[in-house]
Amino acid sequence: GMSRLKHHTFLSSKSTAGTPEWMAPEVLRNEPANEMCDVYSFVVILWELATLCVPWSGLNPMQVVGAVGFQNKRLDIPKEVDPLVASIISSCWDNDPSKRPSFSQLLSPLKKLQRLLVTESL
């Protein structure tokens, strides 16, 4: 799919193309990637929505590559974040892509989250 195309574009370019703050560790290490890198990127966006913060705002892009790609660091999930959201986020950024849930596996928890948000807004 598109993840392979995008991955190839990033790797074949010698520029600083891409946004490391949202990239999976395996992509940052120039390792083979599949759709699980998109799952990782998706939960960085979910983290942004849950925290209203910019990911890795205190680091420059090269520091992000080192921290995420080589030191296995992850963004902090504040205690105020809903436990369901926190569990979705933490399950999706495992260093081993094969341990991350697929998007189809995420449908159930995301639907629960949708119901939670709709109920809270009423």
UniProtKB/TrEMBL annotation:
Gene Ontology CC annotation, any one: cytoplasm
Molecular function terms, GO-annotated: ATP binding; protein kinase activity
Keyword field contains Transmembrane: no
The keyword Kinase belongs to this UniProt entry's keyword annotation: yes
Pfam families per UniProt: PK_Tyr_Ser-Thr
Domain Protein kinase: 1-117
Gene Ontology process terms (BP): signal transduction
Keywords attached to this entry: Kinase, Transferase
PANTHER family with a match to the protein in the record: (RICE GENOME ANNOTATION PROJECT) MAP3K DELTA-1 PROTEIN KINASE (PTHR23257:SF906), SERINE-THREONINE PROTEIN KINASE (PTHR23257)
Name this polypeptide is given: Putative MAPKK kinase
Species this chain originates from: Hordeum vulgare (Barley)
